Structure formats: structure tokens, C-alpha cells
């Protein structure tokens, strides 16, 4: 039998001492952590009645454009369940951390305390905004009365974060899920997009990254100069009241519809679309053009489904819908457009309004297949009657002295509505120079004819081409 030596006793004592010291340090660290618990963590755990290690979290992430909706959804929920509750902010280095990460970072010796609430001004319309909570949390209760904490973080473009995050903390996952679902219901009920006119793209309005709110146009039928019967046909196909939609459903008829306006540039297609926007005052309108068609088509159709009755306007669709026979590999954006038009069910109250300058190169699958385009209307060059109506319409802000416009109308044969608009503008500029003291300038045949001669001059060939003359 081996006898323990002095070295063995020293090693055993050292191990025992190390084990005891480790236990002592762990106990001391727990005591220090408990004493040093931040006001932020104390508020959350005190409200929930359990330590952070036992708190499940339910997280929902939204596109940055939904920031106002998330804020309004939380506010509506809190007003219903705990109207006396107040928002709390967080102080400390918050770079790239979620609220839950900040709460758990206490163990890694980060310092986060209760602080002032961070707000961000967010657009809710063409001329309205709200101050939405950018970073904050609020103590409230779940529908069953159990305590929960709701936290929100808005998008932070400077840090490359374009999402809005909702986090719900509670002692049970069921309570967190119930609150998250209720907040999302309130978001839909208080949706800031519903009934708005919006254009997809990069917005400079209050940092709203993806959507720009536009004023709804207010045009009279007399402001739209088209051949007899054209505007009536367009309105009959597109403009529909809620009661008419309900009756159509009751008769088993589909609601989705497609309108294609085609014709040379400058004839009034976009102007006609603007008139329809004003007539569809209860519908949400989403406008796509240029780069936005390439990036946000799917987002627009998703919003259109959610916000029906709605209208998706795709301007200059020929830029993406050129016939596939003209390209070697086809057009992926065109395929996506076709898929999205097919993907919206016939029962959805969604209207596609497309405009094109080149119907001859339009994809046949888009322009001819039933269910995608139900009505194609030509917007032609104005005839003699149309040119006179346009002339008087655009000159309505002046003292127009033109009892007989036949000479000007005859000399402007073959021009577009855009050309006539520019003609009146140039005649008005001449009159402003000739009548410096007039509150409202007088336009007569001589002034308009001089402006017309200028536009018809050989030196203005490119200008005429751009205006459609």
C-alpha cells in the first residue's frame, strides 16, 4: 500500500481551496449582480414577477414602412387594456442590439438603464405625421390579465437597419403570443395606408423609405378631354361603389379588373389616371413607375390585397412588358407582373390600371389574356373639337378673348394635349411681358398665334417632338 506523502497532501489542499474559492466568487458575483441590477431590468422583472432567465419572448418583424402602423397598433392595444401605462426609454450604448439583448446584457457587464423615450417623426399622409416610438417599452397586461412588457424598435437607416421590430415579454409564451396577435389586429384596424394615394420609391418625406404619400387629385370630368364615350366607358369599368361590389359578389361575379390605356405620349393617359384616382376616393391607390416597377411590384400587390378596395397603377408598362419575342431570355419583371396579376383572386376588389405608349410591342399574354386586361382603351391625338376644348381648358386662368379658335385649331392639327398645354403657357408668358400691370392677363388670337408660330419654327423641331407635335 502506498503511503500519502507531503506533496500529495499539498495538492489535495490546493484543490479544496480552489473549489471553495470558486464557490465563494460565484456567490459573491450573484450577490453583486442582484444589488447592481439595472433600473431597466428591475422594471421588467418587477412587472413580470420572474427573473429574465425565465421570460420567453415573442418577436415580430415588419418592413420599415410599417413603423407608424406598429406604433398605432401598440397604442390602441394599451389604450384598451391599461390606459394609464406609460412608455419608458433606454439609456446606454444601444448599437445593433434588440431590447431583449439589452435586458440580458446585464450579465455581460453592459450598463442599460431606464431613460428618455426615443421618438421618430413618421409620415401618415401627404401632409400629416406622427411621432412614433423609435425605441421604448411599456408595461401592460395580456388579454387574460397577466402582466406583459411590449417593446418596439423602429428602423434605423444610418445603421443599415430597415426593419421595425415588436417584442413581447411575459411569464408565458401563450400570453406573449396573444398580445402580439392583438397588436397586429389593431395595426390592421388603424392602418395608415388605407384610403391613401401612394407611390413606391425612395421617399425624402420624413425618412419614410419606401412609400411616398401623394395628395389625391381632384379633377372634374370637364378637365379630361377625350373622344365622346371614352371616359364614360372607363368610369363604368373601373369606378364602383362598395354597395355595387357587394351586389356583384352576391351574383357570383368577379371583382378584379384590368384597364389598359394606350396611345402616343402626351395624349392624356396619365391625366386620365389622375382623374380616376380622384373618383376612387374610397380606394387605396399604389403607383409604380420606373425603378419602382423593378423593386416593389410584389410589395405593391401584397399591400393591394390587404387594403382592398385598391388600385395598382403601372405607368409605361411597355418598359417591362415588351413582347417576349423581342428579347432572347424574356423579361423576369414581366413574368412577375403576370404572376402577380394572376395571383390576386378574382374575388379581390383590386384594379390594375396600366398605361403604355407602345401597345404594338406589348406582351400578348398581358394584353390579350382574359382576367388580366378586361378593357383596353385608346387615348388618341385630340381631334379639332378636342384641341379647342384643351385650349380653353388650359387658358381658364387667363382672360381669354378668343371668340373663334378655328384658325389656331387648324394650324395645330396632329398635336398632343401636352403640346396645347405648352402652347398656352408660352402665350401666357408673352402676355405677362406685354401686360406687366395686369392682375389677370388677356390672351387673344394674336398672342396665341405668335406662341404657336414659335413652337412650329424649324428651330423647335426637337421641342415639338418631345411635346408630341
UniProtKB/TrEMBL annotation:
Record SUPFAM superfamilies: P-loop containing nucleoside triphosphate hydrolases
Keyword Cytoplasm: no
UniProt cross-references to SMART domains, sorted A to Z: AAA (SM00382)
InterPro entries (UniProt xref): 26S_Proteasome_ATPase (IPR050221), AAA+_ATPase (IPR003593), ATPase_AAA_core (IPR003959), P-loop_NTPase (IPR027417)
Keyword terms: ATP-binding, Nucleotide-binding
Domain AAA+ ATPase: residue ranges: 255-383
Taxonomy, superkingdom: Bacteria
Gene3D superfamilies found in the cross-reference section: 1.10.8.60, P-loop containing nucleotide triphosphate hydrolases
Record-stated family: Belongs to the AAA ATPase family.
Annotated protein name in UniProt: ATPase
Native source organism of the sequence: Lentzea flava
Amino acid at each position: 500500500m502506498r503511503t500519502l506523502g507531503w506533496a500529495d497532501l499539498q495538492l489535495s489542499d490546493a484543490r479544496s481551496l480552489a473549489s471553495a474559492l470558486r464557490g465563494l466568487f460565484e456567490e459573491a458575483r450573484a450577490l453583486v449582480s442582484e444589488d447592481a441590477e439595472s433600473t431597466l431590468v428591475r422594471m421588467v422583472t418587477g412587472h413580470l414577477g420572474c427573473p429574465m432567465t425565465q421570460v420567453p419572448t415573442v418577436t415580430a418583424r415588419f418592413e420599415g414602412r410599417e413603423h407608424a402602423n406598429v406604433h398605432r397598433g401598440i397604442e390602441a392595444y394599451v389604450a384598451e387594456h391599461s390606459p394609464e401605462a406609460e412608455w419608458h426609454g433606454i439609456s446606454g450604448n444601444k448599437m445593433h442590439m434588440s431590447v431583449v439583448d439589452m435586458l440580458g446584457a446585464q450579465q455581460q457587464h453592459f450598463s442599460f438603464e431606464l431613460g428618455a423615450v426615443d421618438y421618430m417623426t413618421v409620415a401618415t399622409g401627404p401632409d400629416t405625421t406622427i411621432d412614433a416610438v423609435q425605441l421604448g417599452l411599456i408595461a401592460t397586461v395580456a388579454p387574460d390579465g397577466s402582466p406583459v412588457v411590449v417593446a418596439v424598435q423602429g428602423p434605423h437607416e444610418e445603421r443599415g437597419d430597415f426593419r421595425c421590430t415588436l417584442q413581447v415579454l411575459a411569464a408565458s409564451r401563450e400570453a406573449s403570443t396573444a398580445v402580439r396577435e392583438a397588436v397586429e389586429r389593431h395595426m390592421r384596424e388603424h392602418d395608415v395606408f388605407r384610403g391613401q394615394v401612394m407611390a413606391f420609391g425612395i421617399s425624402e418625406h420624413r425618412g419614410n423609405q419606401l412609400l411616398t404619400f401623394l395628395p389625391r387629385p381632384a379633377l372634374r370630368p370637364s378637365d379630361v378631354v377625350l373622344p365622346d364615350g371614352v371616359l364614360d366607358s372607363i368610369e363604368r369599368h373601373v369606378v364602383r361603389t362598395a354597395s355595387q361590389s357587394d351586389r356583384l359578389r352576391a351574383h357570383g361575379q368577379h371583382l378584379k379588373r384590368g384597364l389598359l390605356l394606350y396611345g402616343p405620349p402626351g395624349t392624356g393617359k396619365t391625366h386620365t389616371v389622375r382623374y380616376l384616382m380622384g373618383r376612387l376616393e374610397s380606394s387605396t391607390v399604389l403607383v409604380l413607375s420606373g425603378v419602382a416597377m423593378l423593386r416593389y411590384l410584389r410589395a405593391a400587390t401584397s399591400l393591394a390585397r390587404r387594403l382592398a378596395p385598391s388600385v395598382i397603377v403601372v405607368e409605361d408598362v411597355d418598359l417591362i412588358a415588351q413582347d417576349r419575342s423581342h428579347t432572347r431570355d424574356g423579361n423576369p419583371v414581366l413574368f412577375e407582373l403576370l404572376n402577380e396579376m394572376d395571383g390576386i383572386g378574382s374575388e379581390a376588389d383590386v384594379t390594375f390600371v396600366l398605361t403604355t405608349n407602345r401597345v404594338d410591342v406589348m406582351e400578348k399574354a398581358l394584353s390579350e389574356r382574359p382576367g388580366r386586361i378586361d378593357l383596353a382603351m385608346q387615348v388618341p391625338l385630340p381631334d379639332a373639337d378636342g384641341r379647342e376644348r384643351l385650349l380653353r381648358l388650359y387658358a381658364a386662368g387667363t382672360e381669354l378673348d378668343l371668340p373663334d379658335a378655328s384658325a389656331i385649331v387648324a394650324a395645330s392639327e396632329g398635336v398632343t394635349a401636352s403640346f396645347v398645354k405648352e402652347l398656352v403657357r408660352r402665350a401666357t408668358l408673352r402676355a405677362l411681358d406685354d401686360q406687366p400691370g395686369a392682375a389677370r392677363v388677356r390672351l387673344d388670337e394674336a398672342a396665341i398665334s405668335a406662341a404657336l408660330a414659335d413652337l412650329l419654327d424649324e428651330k423647335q423641331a426637337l421641342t415639338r417632338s418631345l411635346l408630341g407635335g
